[in-house]
Design brief:
Order of helices and strands: EHHEHEEHEHHEEEEEHEHEHHHEHEH
Strand content: 5-15%
Structural class: alpha/beta
Number of helices: 13
Helix content: 40-55%
Shape: globular
Number of strands: 14
Distance between the termini: 12 Å
Strand order of the largest sheet: 1-2-3-5-10-11-12-14
Length: about 375
């Protein structure tokens, strides 16, 4: 039964001349005075979602984007600030790009934020998809197999650090701790200080290509999954595959349990009106994401995501996104009806996330958050 609602803001600034006929993505370059506007928008959105009763305000970690698309580099640090400006909403990591971190530094930052926010930070992990980010930090992204191998070892270290009073790790990439003399004894184990105050740490990871290896890794470690902005045929397939993977590790889940389903959305009086309002930001999003191989609106798109190969920005249309339910556009009553149908199909699903395409203006996001909270959410909450 759907009872929880959240929203995702990936950290874009106000962009001008959006859409296929607007400024090319790679031609955008903003001065620091503009890029730091992202913090004002984050603060304003956090206050709005807190007041409107959303459960989680998800943020994305990214680096070096002078184009203005994804400009928040540190979610735990941001969460500590937002916790002082809001009353109850949790701040979600969607997602910490693990290969841009040393795993123990990420574990420390999360644990510190967990203590300082009183448990209001939600941990999330991802492998990354920008070569400029991951490779600049000295780790592989072009080599997908090496990236996945590193990520999996890093996550194992993080979970050991969270859950064990003291631990050691010997792997391909890390030996923790190094066997060095320390204050008269030989170092054999190490303790994360601080450890999270709340254990076990609820951990989320995106399901991007639905690979068997990825789902097996999540199931083995009890990691919850986020399926967002994805054609509904893949949503159904991946929900069943996730359930089967969990079963192999002795966890019997209702279909949709431990998963979050996300949509991009525009509420308007008519479908046509909603599409017209959403089109500029849809096109801007496709223009930026397609060369990175990150659109998931068709079978061809999902194959490209798995292979990390570029896609054509114009190969997807907003109308197709509405048909395959990666986008919800139209009157609130239609969105309620569709989510009721989703609720019936996936009895274990309890969490819906709405998200915004890159370039969506701040005022539009606030208006849509307000309408969704007032016109959609009450149908699912007593």
């Amino acid at each position: 039964m759907i009872t929880k609602f959240s929203t995702l803001y990936v950290g874009h600034i106000e962009l001008e001349r959006c859409g296929f006929s607007g400024t090319p993505a790679d031609d955008r370059r903003y001065p620091n005075s503009r890029l730091i506007e992202v913090f004002d928008t984050t603060i304003e959105l956090a206050r709005v979602v807190d007041e409107l009763g959303y459960d989680i305000f998800w943020l994305a970690e990214h680096h070096f984007q002078h184009e203005g698309y994804e400009c928040l580099p540190n979610i735990p640090m941001m969460a500590v600030d937002l916790a002082h400006r809001t009353e109850r909403v949790k701040i979600g990591c969607a997602f910490n790009v693990v290969p841009t971190w040393h795993p123990l530094r990420l574990a420390e930052d999360y644990a510190t934020a967990d203590v300082l926010t009183g448990g209001r930070l939600v941990f999330g992990i991802g492998r990354g998809y920008h070569t400029r980010e991951v490779e600049t930090f000295g780790n592989p992204m072009l080599d997908a197999e090496a990236n996945r191998e590193l990520f999996e070892e890093q996550v194992e270290i993080i979970l050991k650090a969270f859950n064990q009073e003291s631990f050691s790790h010997q792997g391909k990439h890390y030996t923790i701790p190094p066997e060095v003399p320390y204050r008269g004894y030989q170092l054999k184990e190490i303790t994360l200080v601080p450890r999270p105050a709340r254990l076990p740490v609820e951990t989320w990871q995106p399901i991007v290509s639905g690979s068997a290896r990825g789902l097996d890794f999540m199931a083995r470690h009890g990691i919850k999954g986020v399926i967002s902005a994805t054609a509904e045929e893949f949503v159904d397939r991946w929900m069943r595959d996730y359930q089967a993977a969990a079963r192999r590790y002795g966890r019997e889940l209702a279909l949709g349990e431990d998963l979050l389903l996300g949509f991009r959305m525009c509420i308007d009086d008519t479908v046509e009106g909603a599409i017209a309002r959403a089109r500029p930001s849809f096109e801007e999003h496709a223009k930026f994401m397609a060369p990175l191989g990150m659109l998931r609106y068709s079978e061809e798109h999902v194959k490209a995501v798995a292979a990390r190969t570029p896609q054509s920005p114009t190969a997807a249309s907003l109308e197709n996104g509405v048909r395959n339910r990666s986008w919800l556009c139209g009157p609130a009553r239609d969105i309620v009806a569709y989510l009721k149908d989703v609720e019936a199909r996936y009895p274990g699903l309890d969490h819906i996330m709405i998200a915004w395409a890159l370039g969506t203006p701040r005022a539009h996001m606030i208006e849509q958050l307000t309408r969704f909270a007032r016109e959609v959410m009450p149908a699912f909450r007593k």
